[in-house]
UniProtKB/TrEMBL annotation:
A Pfam family of this chain: Acyltransferase
Family annotation (InterPro entries): Plipid/glycerol_acylTrfase (IPR002123)
Keywords carried by this UniProt record: Acyltransferase, Transferase
Protein name: 1-acyl-sn-glycerol-3-phosphate acyltransferase
Ranges of residues in domain Phospholipid/glycerol acyltransferase: 25-144
Record's keyword annotation contains Glycosyltransferase: no
Species of the source: Cryobacterium breve
Keyword Transferase carried by entry: yes
SMART domains named among the record's database cross-references: PlsC (SM00563)
Length: 226
């Protein structure tokens, strides 16, 4: 589908040379639209996996089959939402993907930005990087909210930009067990995303209902501050 998507949407893609073609890589992106989780796998020059709610994989009938096939084809891995063990299982799933020397995508903001601003990052992304030794490639998405605005079902044809930044090695901040190291590493990643996306900074956490790995990770690593 990548060639078809490029013909239809004509995305501007920069910095793909910054993505290591092998080894452990975290793709850390801003989050503007549901469509982001389709854009990133389609434009990244290696297979990228990410976590999605388990209900996408358990539907029945033709619709359930098509939904499950689609999400499996773009590298999604189903997880249960919740606190406690579910949160730890989500972190462990992301860790397993990285320890298999794969590329893993995550939204440090935790959920979509409904007002277009860039929100403060949560520290699950840093924990994964510091625990697995993965490098982090920051991504700035521009215009994806125009393809599928909140509340719409049918995507619209709009031109978008995907900017991949230089890989970041966050190991110098300290061990994964240090809250200070996780906070500083996350702030470095978010600063890079900000440079690539050009968004206005919100200066606070996004309080919308959180989904996926980062939201679950908040149950394990709440809002850490230095």
């Amino acid at each position: 589908m990548a060639p078809i998507a490029r013909i239809i949407f004509r995305p501007i893609i920069t910095g793909t040379e910054n993505i290591p073609r092998s080894g452990r890589v975290i793709i850390a992106s801003n989050h503007l639209s549901f469509i982001d989780s389709m854009v990133i796998p389609l434009v990244t020059p290696r297979r990228v996996q990410y976590l999605a709610k388990s209900t996408y994989f358990t539907g029945t009938g033709i619709k359930g089959y098509l939904t499950r096939t689609w999400f499996e084809s773009i590298g999604a891995v189903g997880i249960e939402r919740g606190a406690g063990q579910a949160a730890q299982d989500a972190l462990d799933a992301g860790r397993s993907i990285l320890e298999a020397d794969s590329a893993f995508a995550i939204y440090p903001e935790g959920t979509r930005s409904l007002d277009g601003r860039l929100y403060k990052g949560r520290t699950g992304v840093a924990w994964l990087a510091l625990t697995t030794g993965a490098v982090v490639v920051p991504v700035g998405l521009i215009g994806t909210q125009e393809i599928q605005p909140v509340g719409t079902r049918v995507p619209r044809v709009r031109k978008i930009t995907v900017n991949f930044g230089e890989p970041i090695d966050v190991s110098r901040h300290g061990p994964a067990t240090s809250g200070r190291a996780r906070r500083q590493a996350t702030d470095e990643i978010m600063a890079a995303i900000h440079r690539l996306s050009g968004q206005e900074l919100a200066g606070r956490y996004n309080e919308s209902p959180r989904q996926g790995l980062q939201g679950l990770a908040d149950k394990v690593f709440p809002r850490e501050r230095v």
